[in-house]
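Postdoc handover notes: sequence design on the structure in folder B. Input tokens:
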């Protein structure tokens, strides 16, 4: 019988950190050539690397070549599937055209600890830049440190002091959707919102309220979903039982699909009885029955623009806003006379 030969354990970044008497994060920064690491600390780290025989990964190659030619993309597992896929495709396309690969980290929830671990993992891999497409409302000091050391663009959500922000004006999207229904003659506009912990949901809700306030229209009770068609379906069942409802602004296309199904099942016609307008304009919106009126957000171009902003590295840019537009289809109409 042939015995397996035990392979010796490869030296790790933790071994380097222990010998250099610094944290693993400091080792990572030193290997990336971060300006926030003193020359003395960098020398200790490199000496420890030599001592333990730590095998340089992409972080070490970045130190010698100046670039790893990799961009890290952080995504949230929940939320709109179609919008997330389109953003990813845009990032990968623009990165590939510029000669960069993309490493994706997906977190399961809106949790700062999960974000920290994902960013640390990407930092340890030596990415040249980060695109964060996670709507964290608050960030930790560790997240601030990583995004200060690595060029970072955030999409609508997480704000850090060192990051550039690429945003779609979500408040304007909410206003645009609501104004469209008011222009058609509806005098009571209900709203199915996204989850409160999402910045986008809050901003779309603010646009809805401000538009109604400007028109002197009282806002009806808020209904909240979780971006899924199922949550839209549940809220649609509530709306269907309120006969005076003639118009609903739904915060996402996927929730709107659920609302429309619930209304139809309870004998309410769209748009004859209830007009529906939403946000996103994903590919399926035009094939909904009826085709969905929605505020268009070009997520593919959005992802590509994030890479362009990242690689351009214009320190004078603090925030860039991508315009949204209204795609009017058959799910909205003037209210029927009673």
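Designed sequence:
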């Amino acid at each position: 019988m042939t015995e397996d030969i035990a392979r010796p354990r490869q030296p790790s970044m933790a071994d380097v950190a222990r010998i250099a008497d610094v944290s693993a994060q400091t080792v990572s920064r030193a290997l990336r050539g971060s300006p926030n690491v003193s020359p003395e600390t960098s020398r200790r780290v490199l000496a420890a690397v030599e001592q333990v025989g730590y095998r340089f990964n992409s972080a070490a190659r970045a130190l010698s070549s100046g670039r790893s030619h990799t961009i890290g993309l952080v995504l949230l597992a929940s939320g709109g599937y179609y919008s997330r896929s389109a953003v990813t495709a845009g990032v990968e396309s623009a990165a590939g055209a510029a000669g960069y690969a993309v490493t994706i980290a997906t977190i399961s929830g809106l949790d700062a600890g999960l974000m920290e671990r994902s960013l640390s993992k990407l930092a340890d891999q030596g990415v040249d830049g980060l695109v964060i497409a996670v709507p964290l409302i608050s960030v930790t000091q560790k997240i601030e440190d990583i995004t200060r050391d690595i060029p970072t663009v955030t999409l609508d959500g997480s704000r850090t002091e060192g990051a550039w922000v690429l945003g779609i004006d979500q408040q304007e999207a909410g206003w645009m959707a609501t104004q469209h229904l008011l222009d058609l003659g509806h005098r009571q506009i209900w709203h199915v919102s996204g989850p409160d912990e999402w910045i986008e949901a809050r901003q779309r809700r603010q646009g809805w309220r401000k538009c109604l306030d400007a028109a002197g229209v009282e806002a009806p009770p808020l209904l909240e979903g979780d971006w899924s068609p199922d949550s839209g379906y549940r809220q649609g069942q509530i709306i269907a039982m309120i006969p005076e409802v003639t118009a609903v602004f739904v915060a996402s296309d996927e929730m709107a699909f659920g609302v429309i199904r619930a209304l139809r099942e309870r004998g309410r016609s769209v748009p004859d009885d209830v007009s529906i307008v939403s946000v996103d304009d994903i590919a399926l919106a035009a094939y909904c029955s009826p085709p969905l009126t929605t505020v268009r957000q070009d997520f593919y171009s959005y992802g590509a623009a994030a890479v362009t902003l990242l690689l351009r590295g214009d320190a004078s840019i603090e925030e860039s806003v991508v315009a949204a537009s209204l795609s009017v289809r058959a799910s909205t109409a003037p209210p029927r006379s009673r």
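Context for whoever picks this up: The longest strand covers residues 70-76. Don't rerun without checking with the PI first.
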